[in-house]
Design brief:
296 residues; alpha+beta; Muramoyl-pentapeptide Carboxypeptidase, domain 2; two-stranded antiparallel sheet; 10 helices
């Protein structure tokens, strides 16, 4: 079955990546105002035991300061010997994950790109993508995946091709609309509503089970062929993407030979962000995301 994904011409996506404003790691030093030299008369008036007391106090302060530094150094040495490190400071880039200990990402930072979404692992009804990057033509994607998506689109265009994003993040309401539309088209051949829903779910995910709702998936077509059918795989854009998508952290999510595992029909236009390391292994070994996560 062929689905149309025709979109009007629109400007190329904005190439301005999201980045944090410049910041300083340390507070800027504050220059102390210079004091004017006191007059001779005032200096004569100030001759008293106070300078000696001030000098004594200064010496005691310096001694305490040096002792404190020595104790702190000893504490750090003990921590180092015990393998205890201080948290690593990172630049506050939007969507970045704060590192803990010796530069290790937190659990959320390690797993967000490998979120499994399918019929057996639906999203919570109140699921919200942490932050978006708005693309042109009303599209958007999880901000953390945006830079790699933009690099992939730019490099594909640099190869003389015309990739076009025709679907990206979807709200639950939008997914419900698309699913119901597909169910209605299946009712004419199905024996019941339940059977129609089962047929529809092979091509349009049930609400709550779509990767588009997670903000990590995009449908990309060749501008010269904007039909969502098996013929899409023969386009120059899809041949390039299938060969290079893993270099940018994306995978062809629903290969034709994995439909029994994914529960979704072959979609040679649906790309999912999982990160470069996972994408390289999944694509090189001919796996689907379910198989990769099961083996981990």
């Amino acid at each position: 079955m062929t689905h149309s994904c025709i979109v009007h011409d629109f400007p190329l996506p904005d190439r301005a990546y999201y980045a944090a404003d410049p910041m300083q790691w340390d507070e800027p030093s504050v220059s102390k105002p210079r004091r004017l030299a006191p007059s001779r008369a005032r200096r004569r008036k100030q001759r008293s035991p106070l300078p000696l007391l001030a000098l004594t106090g200064l010496m005691l302060f310096a001694a305490g300061f040096l002792l404190g530094r020595a104790e702190a150094a000893g504490t750090r040495a003990v921590q180092a010997a015990a393998g205890v490190g201080e948290p690593v400071r990172i630049l506050a880039v939007p969507g970045a994950v704060r590192s803990e200990g010796e530069g290790r990402d937190s659990a959320a930072g390690e797993n967000w790109a490998l979120l499994l979404v399918n019929k057996d692992h639906p999203l919570p009804e109140d699921f919200q993508v942490p932050a978006f990057t708005q693309l042109v033509n009303g599209h958007s994607i999880d901000k953390r995946a945006y830079p790699d998506l933009q690099r992939m689109m730019d490099d594909c265009r640099a190869a003389g091709l015309e990739p076009t994003i025709c679907s990206s993040y979807r709200t639950r309401e939008k997914q419900e609309e698309l699913f119901e539309r597909k169910v209605q088209s299946c009712l004419s051949t199905a024996a019941s509503r339940e059977e129609a829903e089962e047929q529809a779910a092979v091509w349009v995910a049930r609400p709550g089970t779509s990767e588009h709702q997670a903000g990590l998936a995009v449908d990309i077509v060749d501008k010269s062929y904007q039909s969502l059918d098996d013929g899409q795989e023969e386009t120059a854009v899809q041949r390039w993407l299938m060969e290079h998508c893993a270099e940018y952290g994306f995978i062809l999510r629903y290969p034709t030979e994995k439909s029994e595992i994914t529960g979704v029909g072959y979609e040679p236009w649906h790309y999912r962000y999982v990160g470069e390391e996972a994408a390289g292994e999944i694509m090189s070994r001919g796996l689907c995301l379910e198989e990769y996560l099961e083996a981990c």
